[in-house]
Structure formats: structure tokens, C-alpha cells
Amino acid sequence: MASQLCWGTNLKAASCCGAGFTIPSIITTDDKAQLAVLYTYSKIHADVLPDGTWRERSEDDHTQIFKLEGAHIIEDRWQAGLSLAFQKRERSGALADTSSGLGDITAQIGYEYLPDWNYNPYRPKGIGYLSLIAPTGRSINESEDGTGIDARGRGFWGIGLGTVLTKSWRKWDANANVEVHHSFQKEVHNAQVNGTLKPGQGGSLAIGSGYNWKSIRLGGLITWVYEDPIDVVGTPDSQGQLQRYANGSLIMSYLFKTNATAALSYTDQTLFGSPSNTALSKSITLFFQQRWQR
């Protein structure tokens, strides 16, 4: 997330959980290190059933996420990054409840395979990365009461492979991120499930662009996300449903002379794509990043 907020300057709970593969913490500039803090407030607008039926929420269900992301050059074109999040979710109505805790932790290692050493009007800068997600956040299948309010992540060990591409032309810039990942099965024994959860593959594609005016950047970003069904082998024995959704984001950022960036973004999951088996939210993110030059 940090990279795409400042360039140029899962099951129903998955689309609003505290961490995931979608956007990595990658250094896309010529700096040696970066550290970012993010605060996100999101509110669920509707649930989408596996058959595509929408059901608008009549009761409040909102989440606050505090995230810390960092990355550092480790040798020439190699870099390493880490992202962790703390999530608090509150729900009103008949199922009123609150839950908070750590989300999934994501680590990655990246390599700049397409450097931008000499200007080319068409060739982008390219960074490939390998991600590892640790299930420190509970999945919706491990919910203690079955409502999913205490779900704060995918809940599976996973590994992903992706690439970030960036390009700028004077005041304009463009960026893209594409990744695929695999999640590993796990044993779950609680009041809801007694058996093995078998997830599959997933992936995402993000495309964005922005216009830079002095120290201000205005940009937009669309991210499409897909996850394979999660099957349960045990009690109950069941087949899951695939999940898909899309994020549409508007971003405004400001570049300080101290090599720091502040940004504000609005994200709406109800505008694009053909969502299925997910909860759709609208959110606002506040972002601050400090970078250190080589």
C-alpha cells in the first residue's frame, strides 16, 4: 500500500481484513530505506452472496486498522520489507460486539530486475518480489462465535510472487502491480469447524496513475482481487465459494522537503468489478512515510 499511495511523490471477511498479499511495501524510488504508518477507517456497506446478490447493511459495522510498513535496501538492487497491522472492529445491532488484535504479518524480498539507469520513454522500472504471509490474524473459519467479527486476516501461511512497474513522464506517472499467491492448508478444531481447511490460489492486479503539480500529487488506483474457494474436509464437510472484488481509490499526497510524504486516500469497493462472496466497504486512509536517501 505504501508504494502506491506516494508514487510520483478472503471469505467474507477477506476484503476488510488487516493484511494480505495485494499491495507490497516496496521501495520504488532511489532511496535506501522507508518507513510508513497508516490509519484506515472502513465501514461495510453491503454483503455480496456467492450468486452475486447484494444485501445492504442496515447496522453499523466498522473497522479501524493501524499499520506499520518498512523496507530497506540490503545490497545494490536487493531489498527487504515487512508489514504488520493491528485491527479493531466494532458492530452494532442484534449481533453487537467488538474485537481487536494483530492482523497477518507480511514479509517480502524484492529485486530490481529492470533498473532505470538511463531514460527511456517507454521502458518502466521493474521490481520483482517474493512475499511470505504469516497467519498471526485469525481467519473467519476460526471465529469463536461464528460471526467473523474476530477475523483479522487470511489465517493461512502463504507465499506469493509479483512485480511492481512504475513509469513517469514529466508531470504524469503510471504504476502497476500484479501478483499471484498460494495459501497452505491447516487444521482447525473449534465449535464451528473440526477438520482441515484447504485454500487454493489467488491473485491481484492493480493499475494506477497520477498527476504531479509542484509538491502535490493527485492519483487514482483500481485493484482487482481473486481468491479460490476454501474447502472444509471434516465436520462439517463442505465446498467453499470463490471470492472476488475490486477496490477503486482516489489519492492525494504531499511531498515535504524533508523527504517525507503525507497522503489521504478514499477507497470504495462498490464501484468496480463483479464482486462475489465478500463484504464490501468504503474507507479512508491517512498515511505518512519517511524516506532516507542512499
Feature tags:
mainly beta, single chain, 2% helix, Lipocalin, 12-stranded antiparallel β-barrel, 294 residues
The counted number of beta strands is: 17
Q: What is the CATH H-level superfamily?
A: Autotransporter beta-domain
Strand order of the largest sheet: 1-3-4-6-7-8-9-12-13-15-16-17
CATH level 1 class label: Mainly Beta
Average pLDDT level: 90
**Which second-level CATH architecture applies?**
Beta Barrel
The helix content is under 10%
Order of helices and strands: HEEEEEEEEEEEEEEEEE
Largest sheet: 12 strands, antiparallel, barrel
Q: How much strand?
A: over 45%
**CATH level 3 topology:** Lipocalin
* C-alpha Rg (nearest Å): 19 Å
How is this structure best described in words?
- There is one protein chain.
- The chain has 294 residues and is an all-beta fold.
- It has one domain (2-293): Autotransporter beta-domain (Lipocalin, Beta Barrel), CATH 2.40.128.130.
- The chain is 2% helix and 60% strand.
- The protein has one helix and 17 strands.
- The strands form two sheets. The protein has a twelve-stranded antiparallel β-barrel. A three-stranded antiparallel beta sheet has the order 10-11-14, with no helix packed on it.
- Strand 4 (78-91) and strand 5 form a beta hairpin.
- It is globular, with a radius of gyration of 19 Å.
